[in-house]
Each structure stands twice: as C-alpha cells, then as structure tokens.
Amino acid sequence: MALGTLPVIIKSMPDDTRSDSLRSLPADEDLIAAYRAGDKNALEILFTRYLRFIKAYLFRISWIQDEGFIEDVRQIVLMTAFNGIIKGIFTDTRPASFRKWLYTICRVVCLKQNEKQARLPQNISQLYPETPTAIPDDLSLKVSEQGVDYEQLHLKQEEALAQLSPSEQKLMQLISVGKKYKEILKEPEFATYSLDYLMRKVYLIRKKMKKEGE
Amino acid sequence: MKEKNPCEKYQLAITNYVLGEAMPISKNELLGHLKTCAVCRKDLDDWSDNYALMRAKTSDSKPETKARIKQFIKELVAQPGPVPLPDEIEVPGNVFVGKPAGTVWQCIGKEGRVILDDLPKKTGLPSQVAYGAMGWLLHEDKIRVTQTQDKVFLYLTPQEQQTYQANNNPLSL
User: Fold this and answer.
1) Start-to-end Cα distance in chain A
2) Are residues A75 and A127 in the same domain?
3) pLDDT averaged per 10 residues, chain B (length 173)
C-alpha cells in the first residue's frame, strides 16, 4: 500500500475491533511505516486493532484473572510496544511479525507482573486456596509461541454466538463476565437448573460453538 | 446411530477446569489423560482461547473501560519519546550521582589510592552507581587516573587531597 494513501484510509477507521471492519484495515507493517513517516494516528489505529486481542491473550496466560490487573498489564504492554517502536527495537517488516512480537511482549510483561503481584506463586492454588480446580498453571503457559490468531477466532466466535438460542447466549454472557455456576443458578432464568445440568449445558454449548466455528 | 465421544468425561472436566469450577474428576486424572490425548489437549486450548476472548470482549464492552483505554492510547501515541514504565521511578541526580560521589571522594581520600576494580567493594556502592559517581568526579576534575598494564588507580587531585586532609584532620578543628 502506498503510504500517501494511508491518511485517507485512516480517517475512516473504526474505533473498535468489530468483526465487519477487521479485514478492511491496512496491514500492521503499513501502519508502522506510516507512523515512522510522521502519522501518529497510524499507531493509534494499530494499538486499537489489538486492544481486545491483547486482553484475551492476557486472560489466557495470566495466573491472576482479576479484570483490573489484566487492564493494568495491558497498559504496560502497550507502553512497552510503543517504546519498542519509537526506539527502533521493532524493525521486522514481514507480515504478521508485529503480532508475534506483541504477543511476546505480552508473555514477558504478564509473567513479570504476575510474579511481582503474587511473589512467585508456584501455582494458582496458592493465590486462591479456596478454588479447588482453578486454571492449571502447568498448562496455561503452554500457549503457542506464535501467539493465537485471535482475529480469526474472533470472527468465528461472533458467527458461532449468533447461532445460539437467546437463553444459550445469556448463559455464555454470564460466564464471560466471570460468573460462577452457583451465581448463575441464582438467576431467574436458570433457577430451575441443577448444577449437573448447568455443567452439561455449558459443555454442550461450547461444543455447539466449536462445531459452528469449524 | 450417533457415535459416543470416548473423551466426553474429560472434555466435560475441561469445561470446568478453564472456568475454575469444581470438576467431576480429579485434576491429576485430567492431566494424566491430557498427556496422552491430543484431541483433548486441542480441546483445552480451543476452550481456553474462546473463554479468554469472551472475557476480553465483555470486559472491553463496558463504556468506562472503552473510554479510559481510548484516552490512554491517545496520550501514549502523542508522546515525543519513550515513556517510563510504571515500575520505573524518577531518581534525582543528587541521589544517583551526588551523594555517591561524596562517598567515593571520601573513600579515595582515606585510602590515598584506590584500584578501580575495588571501588564498588571499598565504597559499598553498587558498581554502576560507584562508576557513575567516579565519572562525575572525573568530569569535575576532583580525581585523577593512572594506569599500569593490568590495573587502573584512582587518586584525588593534590588540591582535593589537601581539602580532604584539612576536613579530616582533628588538629585542624
């Protein structure tokens, strides 16, 4: 893409990672080149594109699942990425290299902040002893070194969620705000469910979403 | 007839595992199964990613979060140079160099001559601080440096040595 055309495109950029607009954005490399050529807006667009995906990745790898903590870590990730770009540490111009670099920053910053916050926990059970089977520490860090293509996953997930019934959508929404099964059972819509039934229901919904996404 | 999923019990457990809920089987049993079953490992990965993305989406859809992060990015990209990270704290020049320079000066004055490599140990300062202070003293013409083939020595300049002796001689009081 010619850099001269970029500011025009940038003016019409969306302010969110909506699925319909994701594919129409300029490539990461073009945005970084535009920023280096003096267009500050380009970096704003680049960071906005990855906002949700950074957060998702942090939720995925962090021992500490507190929303405020993840938000703080995301800001440090953005600051580190900004410093890296401005100091010329990131110079790779190959496609998708920015994403990989950004996810590497996420891993390093997240690990450091987790250690700092929790004073080197061996596992999450030390942080939340009341949680009998929390996210497995030994597995949660085994995320692909390449990072996950959340952009692709986001599109698939949107489609899959749209196929669910209103009640199923409501259930997934409650789960995505971090509600526990016991809390969900107190909701009027699910008050008649037993715990076993609810567990099975969530399992079946995620299987359905997986099938829709394939 | 629909074929039964042989891993259903484990995948049910994976659902709860990622959500941090109690599982119908033990964690060790699940981990043992995951070591041998690539399908379930993939299932765990997929569900973890999906759940993380759903949480991020819900969290970011709050208007206050959205507005805050938007403002943060706007301010960040407007910065003319690298920004200090939250765990970096501003250290005043007199704390980082001034006071240590006094310590280094006192040490060299007392010893008369100090080997460069021994400076951190003799002053009790971290090496980067001791050498930073030494640089400042050199810049201010308060110390001089001599060198043999394998060692570097630090002395106070004659004028500074006199000042040191005058300040530290009990008879001068």
Assistant:
1) 32
2) yes
3) 77 90 86 88 88 91 90 91 81 79 94 94 91 93 93 94 85 54
